[in-house]
Specification:
- By secondary structure, the chain is α/β, with parallel strands linked by helices.
- The protein has three domains: 3-249, 2-enoyl-CoA Hydratase, Chain A, domain 1, CATH 3.90.226.10; 274-437 and 474-503, 2-enoyl-CoA Hydratase, Chain A, domain 1 (Alpha-Beta Complex), CATH 3.90.226.10; 439-472, no CATH class.
- The chain is 37% helix and 18% strand.
- The protein contains 20 helices and 16 strands.
- The strands form two sheets. Strands 1, 2, 3, 4, 5, 6, 7 and 8 form an eight-stranded mixed sheet that branches. Strands 9, 10, 11, 12, 13, 14, 15 and 16 form an eight-stranded mixed sheet that branches.
- α16 (439-446) packs across α18.
- The longest helix is centred in the N-terminal third of the chain and has 16 residues, at 109-124.
Length: 521
């Protein structure tokens, strides 16, 4: 080494020292506490999420600027959030990761500045953004400044919705108004027994209402996956959540003007599984598994079901068919007979809109006897909620392919991507029944007097039901009227869908000029 390089420049030594201090966040003791809770640090999480060696940090030297309530005595560089950009599978991704070791990850004015900065860069460069949430909420010491900081983030969440994919990973607490940011993003992934969201905590609830609860029972992963419908996916560990986020992004384009990534299929596009020809029972009242249907049609191993435990009578999820990303929407006949209710309508409508935002074609499997009847549903606004699904499919301009496997009755037929809502190709299986209602209901209305006056009313009703079903509740009657494009053997479904999506790849659909529609909410 030349003599002039034998002594370190003190300025370089100082920079390295400062960088190491930044990497320590709130310090070794607080990191130890974080690990003792079974949680990773913000930087450890980013190491798992991003391709090795690709993370570039932004604004690591920022500290909070206030002196309220003595917080000027303890300043940490980075101010409780790590922001920057890196790559996932070679694609640029912008990220922010809240650091619970610094003021419990609470949001300050400067932390908001950092998050907003990275969100703005993501949009300018047409790249997804992922937020790793682990925060006690607003930094109380900063008062209204922290609230203003949240508002800046919320505004960007809303304005950038449908422009770039936004994914929130809940890796710890997310309390108070902070929960509105992930609620505005496309997908929320939670960690079981480690993350929770709520607007008012257990102590406030006990003071105001007298109810006793805890954080997990109030807003844990099981609650938001199965009861509230706020979250979309849950994993057992942080590492699993981070790896799932990597996998999910493989189904999305980087922005709304690109197409989703294509992966060369390892599954034969012409594969026809004979089991599909035997999956729908002969009896229309007998259930079967639509999940099994989906798994036999898509590329093997590619299905990620979204919100599997909320409104299980509906199925939504991302998959690949012939290597192309698709959104799957379906009914599950083994859950509530596949009927559409308030929650399932909301679940399907939001998913359809998300896919349409990011140019992901929609494949819909239909087997529904209609909307769930009842006073509770009517008073709860099932019309309004069902209209969301109708609106979503009508507005969607992506390629849409529908497969009617069995029942498509009444309003359920119409709202489930029916041909005249703009669906491009509609297939029916030989077991399909497309009608205003089931044969029993139709006969009871149309032939009421004839049945009651018959010598054997039960026998007369049964005979009329069978005749009505043979004449009207079959795919051939609908096909003759132009309501389906083709009747196919169930085993032919996969190659038929792949061929349809290939033919629709360059679809153009120009909507009338408007500011935005007024979806029923």
């Amino acid at each position: 080494m030349p003599e002039e390089f034998t002594h370190e420049d003190p300025r370089i030594v100082e920079l390295r020292s400062v960088r190491e201090k930044i990497r320590q966040g709130g310090g070794a003791e607080r990191i130890k506490i974080q690990h003792a809770k079974g949680k990773l640090t913000a930087r450890e999480r980013l190491d798992i999420l991003l391709d090795p060696g690709t993370f570039n940090e932004l604004e690591p030297y920022i500290t909070h600027q206030g002196d309220e309530m003595g917080i000027a005595n303890e300043k940490f560089m980075g101010d409780g959030v790590v922001t920057g950009y890196g790559q996932i599978d070679g694609r640029t991704i912008y990220v922010y990761a809240q650091d619970f070791t610094v003021y419990g990850g609470t949001l300050s004015e400067m932390q908001s500045h950092k998050i907003c900065r990275v969100m703005d860069l993501a949009v300018r460069n047409g790249a997804p953004i992922i937020g790793l949430i682990d925060s006690g909420g607003a930094r109380i010491q900063e008062g209204v400044k922290s609230l203003g900081g949240y508002a800046e983030i919320f505004r960007r969440n809303a304005q950038y919705s449908g422009v770039i994919p936004q994914i929130s990973l809940m890796l710890g607490p997310c309390a108070g108004g902070a929960a509105y940011s992930p609620a505005l993003t496309d997908l929320i992934i939670m960690v079981e027994e480690k993350s929770f969201m709520f607007l008012t905590g257990p102590e406030v609830i006990k003071t105001v209402t007298g109810e006793t609860t805890d954080a997990e029972s109030l807003g844990g992963a099981a609650v938001h996956l199965g009861i509230s419908g706020t979250a979309h996916l849950a994993t057992e560990s942080e590492t699993d959540a981070l790896l799932l986020a990597r996998r999910l992004l493989g189904y999305f384009p980087s922005n709304n003007v690109e197409n989703p990534p294509y992966q060369p299929p390892v599954d034969d596009p012409l594969r026809m599984d004979e089991v599909l020809n035997h999956i729908v029972p002969l009896s229309p009242s007998e259930s079967y598994s639509m999940h099994e249907v989906i798994l036999h049609v898509i590329d093997q191993g590619s299905f990620i079901e979204i919100q599997p435990t909320w409104a299980p009578n509906a199925i939504v999820g991302l998959a690949r068919i012939g290597g192309h990303s698709v959104g799957i929407v379906a009914q599950e006949p083994s859950a509530m007979a596949g009927v559409i209710d308030i929650n399932s309508a909301d679940k399907m409508a939001r998913f359809v809109r998300m896919c349409d935002c990011f140019n992901i074609p929609l494949v819909t499997f239909v087997d529904s006897p209609g909307f769930l009847p009842g006073i509770g549903q009517e008073h709860g606004g099932v019309i309004r909620h069902g209209a969301k699904l109708l609106y979503a499919y009508s507005e969607a301009t992506v390629p849409k392919v529908t497969v009617i496997t069995r029942k498509a009755y009444g309003g359920a037929y119409v709202v489930m991507s029916s041909k005249f809502l703009g669906t491009d190709v509609t297939y029916a299986w030989p077991s399909a029944e497309i009608a205003v209602m089931g044969a029993e209901g139709a006969v009871n209305i149309l032939f009421k007097k004839q049945i009651t006056s018959a010598a054997d009313p039960a026998q007369e009703r049964q005979s009329l039901v069978e005749d009505y079903r043979d004449r009207f509740n079959n795919p051939y009657y609908a096909a003759r009227a132009g309501y389906v494009d083709d009747i196919v053997e169930p085993r032919e479904t996969r190659p038929k869908i792949i061929a349809s999506l290939a033919a629709l790849r360059d679809k153009v659909s120009i909507a009338p000029a408007r500011k935005h529609g007024n979806i029923p909410v």
